[in-house]
């Protein structure tokens, strides 16, 4: 009976956190439900970095009903003074009876200290209710807070035969409309969206979030070792979102100045000839970009895969076959000799979206 109760309220807390994905920056998404005598008396979610944590909103709503209540929270309550005071202190001063948590906070400033504080004050703590769902929900936060590197999701959209365009270069559209809506939701849920300069030259993309609901457009990042990006592209000129170019010392200073005059930020990541991708990722991490959606093309996808900088792969596949001998696929790199050396996907999830298929998983390198 208790187990059913715990999962019932925790899944509501997780639902709230899920809907807030994309709007908390490098912070986790967190939901909280306060329950007293069989009734919900407070609900809350963390909605924006620098503003109240989920527990604070839910406890404010509960008011005097918080005393003796059970508090469901999707992440271990914090124990540190960050941009806001520690939630564990607040739970203690409200005299709640029991705290049920989905997963531990991997932030080294918290990591278990939240539980210790609560237990030391006689509050009953239970951990691990719907833990897998909670960890999956905050996979970007977990990677960033433990490594300082952004979580990178590589998204591809291809035909059944693995092509990303026809032999003449036509690519509109491979995926169906529903899958494209999913892709825009993915953009909303990442802080950066990254492409190679070849993709900019070929497609002149806008790389903004265009959803049927309002959405946030991530910062647009172009990997361009020689600053070949044409000035006359949407990314340079439209001002619809910030644009950042990752380049090398080989790029001309004059070209950099022209780009900067359009408000584009240029960052040099090493001597060249290619952009050092690990350096690039740690510089983006330092700029508090904690998650990136990589949208190609094949060369950058291949290089990021080879550098082991991809955390999740998400592949949208349309039931079409276009053939062609030289027609590009989603990943261009040297390739392996033996099947044993293949990069594999772990924790595979498969979903159909109308007549399209979405396959996602975590890459593992041999
Ligand atoms: C919670 N509840 O709703 C959130 C938590 O800078 P601050 O003060 O917002 O602190 C951010 C850190 O607090 C973040 O890295 C994570 O460890 C924790 N987030 N904790 O108890 C919440 N958002
Ligand atoms: Zn907190």
* Gross geometry: globular
Instruction: Average the pLDDT over all residues and give the rounded result.
Output: 95
- What percentage of residues falls in helices of 4 or more residues? 25-40%
Which structural class fits the helix and strand makeup?
Answer: alpha/beta
The string of secondary-structure elements, in order, is HEEHEHEHEHHEHEHEHEHEHEHEEE
Strand order of the largest sheet: 10-9-8-7-11-6-12-14-13
Radius of gyration: 23 Å
> How far apart are the termini?
44 Å
Number of strands: 14
Q: Note the main sheet.
A: 9 strands, mixed
Present as ligands are: ligand AOF, zinc ion
State the low-pLDDT regions, or none.
none
H/I helix tally: 12
Strand content: 15-25%
Describe it.
The chain has 366 residues and is α/β, with parallel strands linked by helices. Helix content is 30%, strand content 24%. A 9-stranded mixed β-sheet has the order 10-9-8-7-11-6-12-14-13. A 5-stranded mixed β-sheet has the order 2-1-3-4-5, with helices on both faces. β3, α3 and β4 (98-103) form a beta-alpha-beta unit. α3 (87-93) runs parallel beside α4. The longest helix has 18 residues, at 2-19. It is globular and about 70 Å long. The model has no long low-confidence stretch (mean pLDDT 95). The chain binds ligand AOF and zinc ion (ZN). Its cofactor is Zn(2+). Keywords: Hydrolase, Metal-binding, Multifunctional enzyme, NADP, Oxidoreductase, Riboflavin biosynthesis, Zinc. Its EC number is 3.5.4.26, 1.1.1.193. In the N-terminal section; belongs to the cytidine and deoxycytidylate deaminase family. Residues 4-126 form the CMP/dCMP-type deaminase domain.
